[in-house]
Every structure is written in C-alpha cells, then in structure tokens.
Amino acid sequence: MRPCLAIPIFDHGEFIGKVVESLASLDLPCIIVDDGSGEATRAELQRLEARHEWVEVVHHDRNRGRGAALRTAYRTAARQGMTHVVQLDADGQHTAADVPKFLDAARAQPDALVLGTPIFDESIPWHRLHGRKLSQAIVWIETWSTAVRDPLCGFRCIPLAATLPLLDGADGGDRMDFDPELVIRLVRAGVEVTNIPTVVHYPEGGVSHFRMVEDNLRIAWAYVRLALVAPWKRRSDGPTVVPKRNPEWASASERGSRFVLRVLVSFIRKIGGAPLHLLLAPIAAYYTLFAASARRASQTYLARIDRARGGRGRRPGLRESYRHFYSFAGMILDRFSLWSGAYDRFDIILHGREKMERYLASGRGAFMVGAHLGNFDMLRIVAREAGIPVNVLMFAANAERINEAFGMLDPKCNVRVIHVDPTSAHTAFEIRRCVNRGEFVAVLADRSFPGGRHRIARANFLGEPAAFPEGPFLVSMMMRLPLVMTIALKTGPKRYDVFLEELANGDPVPASSREKAVQERVENFAGRLEHYCQQAPFQWFNFYDFWEVTEHGRD
After folding, report:
1. Is residue 292 part of a domain?
2. Of the residues 207, 236, 265, which one is the last residue of a structural domain?
3. Do 359 and 232 share a domain, yes or no?
4. Boundary of a domain, candidates 219, 236, 253
5. pLDDT mean over 79-88
C-alpha cells in the first residue's frame, strides 16, 4: 500500500498554510490541485511547494470544479504509483490528526472505501446538517445499503484500483456533486465501506464555495440521474469489484437489485407515473440552467428546424430549451411506464400496419431503423400486440441481464436485446439466426457507432451534411431484408403515433451498385428523419452538435 494526501483548493490561501503544516509529521506525499485560484492563493501555494519537498502543486488554468480537481489528484497519484489517496479540504474543516485512522482502516481492508463520519460542533449551519441527513437517506435507497454514514464528507480514503476504472467508464459531475456520486458508484460496484468518526469544524471567517441553489440542484440531479439508471445496470457503472472478504456480496446485490426493480414496477403499476411527474420540471430546469453544452446543442438544432420550416433560423432562448429538456424527461418517464408493463395506459396508432403484416406473411422478417426521435420503446407495444419477435441491437455488454429484466417486467414481452460488438463477427451471426427464424431486427441509425471501426455516410440533414452509420443500411442489403423506418411520436398526453415506412424492399443489389445504393438509402433515411423532426421538433434527443461528429463516431 502506497498512500498519499490530496487537497483540492480554490482561493483558500489564508488556510492552506496551516493545513499543510498540520500534515507535515505524517511523512506522506501531498498533491494539491489548484483549481484556478487567484494570485494570492497561487503565491501561497508556490511558497509551500518551495518550502516542503513532499508537496506538489498541480494547476488548473481555470476553475473547473471540486470534482474535476479530485479527478486530477487521483490520476496524478496513480501516475506516481500511489494506491490510495487520503483527501482533505483546504479550508481547515478536517482534523489532520485523524489521517492515521483512515490509513489504518485502509491497511486493514485495502479494497474498501474509507469515509469520514462527521462529528459536528455548533459551528455547522443548520441547513447543512439537515441536508446531510437527507442525502444519507437517498444514498441508502440508491445503493440498497445502509453502509454509508455520510456521502458528502470530503475527508475520505480512496482506493484507486477501484475508483479510476469507474471514472474512466462513466460520465459524472465535476463540482460538488462529485463526492456523493462517486460513493454511490463505488458501493454499486461492490466496494465495501468503512466509516471513521472524525470531528469537523467550520472555521470562523471561512469562505464556503458551496452555492446553495446551484450546488444543491447539481447534487439533486446526480441522485435523480443515478436513480434513472435502470436497476439491472447498477452493477455496470464500471468494472465490478467484488470484495475479497465478502464473496457472497454479489448474489446479495443481485437480490437487492431485483427487489428494487419489483418495488419500482409495483409502484408504477398501482399508482401510475403521476407522482413522478413532479420530477420533470426540476430536471428540465437543471439542464436548461447548467448543462451548457446540451443547451447550446438544443438551441442550434431548434434554429435549424426554424430555417427548415421557412423561418430565419432565429436562435431560441431558454424557454424553448426548457421545453426541449422537459420533453426528454417526460419521454424517460414514459419508458419507465412501459418497462413496468403499463401498456394499457398508452393509446397507440400504428400507421403502416399492412406492411408489417406482409413481412410476417413472407416469413422473412424485416430490418427496422429508428432514431433518437420520439420513443423507440413504443416498438414494444407494437411487437406485443402483433406477436412479432423483435431483436434490438444496442451497445449493452449486459444484454442478458436486460433481457432477464424485460422478462420479469412482462413475461409476454417479444423484445430481446442483442449486444453489438463491432470487433466481433458474433453480432452478424446472431442477426442471421434471427432473420432465419422470421424475426425482426431493429436499431437506432442516427448515431455513428463508437470505437471508430465503422464506416459512415454523409447526407444532408436540416441544411447541412451530417454523419450517419452505413452499417444498418449495408447489413439489411447484404441479408436481402426489407428496410423499414420506424418512428414513434408523442401526439398527446398518453398517445403515440407509430409510423412504418419502407425504405427498401429487400430485393438483391449487385455488388457493383451496393455503395451507391447504401448512400441512397442513407439519404432517404435522413430526408424522412428531417420530415418527422419538423413534425415534432421537441422530440429529437441528440443533445450534442450533430453536425460536428467526426469519422470516429459517437456513442
């Protein structure tokens, strides 16, 4: 075990000197990450680094947030061969004399996450105290465990072997939401937790960088976002780390995840999704105010829609972006209702039913292409009512667990997930087996596949060429399957109109003409996608600059 200390800092130059001096007797390397501090703090850090050879200062060129600073600290420590990081705050809240307690706990259980359990004095603001109790209860629900005593305390010992893969494998918050989110992800990954009581004091004259409204919204959204991760994916936030001292944890976690899923399903079936609608407004407001890149992408897209409809391409404001994000949140809620088997709560109007009946009669099935427009999951109802087995291609390494969950939610479900691996021929063979059984294969065809091992075609979409994957169009051609575009648009509170359009009839195409034929099919798909986007502009859910995607693709 090779531990070090880590301190994120942003303009706490008046306190950092005392904090560093209190750590000198520990004889441990200390990484201080300056997160874009002002001149006074930078000067103090320069003095400390020159005075103490065990202190290393890493600078951010601008303020990126507490989470970003801790990410930098962890990765810097790992590059130096460290195995554990004891992190403290720079404002003197934490008791340096307790660091040995954290190290002893880590040595006893090297794979465990060691968390500080604050013992507060009268200096703590009352809203902080009650907010921590609420966070504790939420984390217990999120992890289905009472192991975590305080998910917000910044005094903790981080096992890098378990933490770094999680940071590399999942996007997360970079500010005050980082600490509780990391705790949830580590517990879900099977990391044990050790809690160490420690005195926490809010120093007189200290300046807190915790922004009451914004940071509480960030933390609340982190909890909502993690809760919206399907329960069968909770063990897939990153590599699974099974504790050596508790090998039966894995089976217990599976039982817990299934129990949570059943509770959620039962809640929606008996009560409906109405209570969950209360979450839609704050989720949409959060994205509108704080998700700058997603907001810019939304506004760029909506401006293109305006031009396509004959307008001047006026850039929309916050109101339009809020409506866009609200539509997205509402679609997620509808997906949860579908997963709960609440099919009777939706009114589905299927346009093109005769095409589907024709494909069924032929015994060949069809290749269906959709987009991140509307609700592709409505295909579940269509498949269920028509008795059509549908296989959905997606990048989901835990496809079997998803299929098991679908079976538990609805034993009559006719939708199965097939994991797409661009590096393996297994996917192609699996598609062929489905086709030979007369089943349907479906995939979202408006994003290039991740990994860079694919071909793209560019087609005009809303006034400018955009990248689309060739794979779905080429595979359907090679297998001589009808190519059907399917789009499900929400046209009422519980009504969806599902459109089926044939893009190709499945007739054989000579090898010399395939490249041209693929390009024509992509262009046809892009043109029809533009048509449906104009019908329901707020139901397009690609919140990135769709027209700037490179050949390396986007997942």
Report:
1. no
2. 236
3. no
4. 236
5. 95
For residues 57 and 49, the answer to whether their CB atoms sit within 8 Å is yes
Rounded to an integer, what distance in angstroms lies between the CA atom of residue 468 and that of residue 458? Answer: 6
SS3 letters across 190-253: CCCEEEEEEEECCCCCCCCCCCHHHHHHHHHHHHHHHHHCCHHHHHHCCCCCCCCCCCCHHHHH
Torsion of CA 160, 233, 325, 417, to 10 degrees: 140
Domain span at 381:
345-548
Handedness of CA 184, 190, 195, 196 (dihedral sign): negative
Burial class (CB in 10 A: 0-12, 13-18, 19+), 420: buried
State phi, psi for 517 to the nearest 5 degrees. Answer: -65, -40
The answer to whether position 296 is within a domain reads no
485: exposed, middle or buried (Cβ count in 10 Å: 0-12, 13-18, 19+): buried
Do 209 and 350 sit in the same domain of this protein? no
Sheet hosting strand 30-35, strand order edge to edge = 55-60, 30-35, 3-9, 84-87, 156-159, 113-120, 193-200
> Residue 70's domain is classified under what CATH number?
3.90.550.10
In this structure, are 151 and 28 located in the same domain? yes
Token code pair at residue 10: 């942003």
Q: What is the pLDDT of residues 406-430, one digit of tens each?
A: 555 555 555 667 766 655 567 777 8
The answer to whether residue 207 sits within a structural domain is yes
> Among 391, 382, 392, 381, which Cα is nearest to 356's?
382
- Would you call 490 helix, strand, or coil by DSSP? strand
Q: Are 166 and 210 in contact (CB under 8 A)?
A: no
The DSSP result for 126-159, as a single string, is HHHHHHHHHHHHHHHHHHT----S-SS-S-EEEE
Q: For residue 262, what are its two tokens?
A: 């059943």
Asked if the model's pLDDT at residue 155 lies above 90, the reply is yes
Which tens digits make up the pLDDT trace of 245-261? Answer: 333 333 333 333 444 45
Q: List all residues 6 or more positions away from 360 whose beta carbon is below 8 Å from its beta carbon.
A: 386, 388, 438
- Among the listed residues 182, 186, 183, 181, the one whose alpha carbon sits nearest the alpha carbon of residue 235: 186
Residues 530 and 394 in one domain: yes
* Domain identity same for 538 and 398: yes
- CA distance linking residue 94 with residue 422, whole number of Å: 49
- 190 is a domain residue: yes
How many angstroms separate the CA atoms of 163 and 124, rounded? 30
**pLDDT for the residue numbered 206:** 52
Structural domain count of the chain: 2
Beta-carbon-side half-sphere exposure of residue 269 (alpha carbons within 13 Å): 11
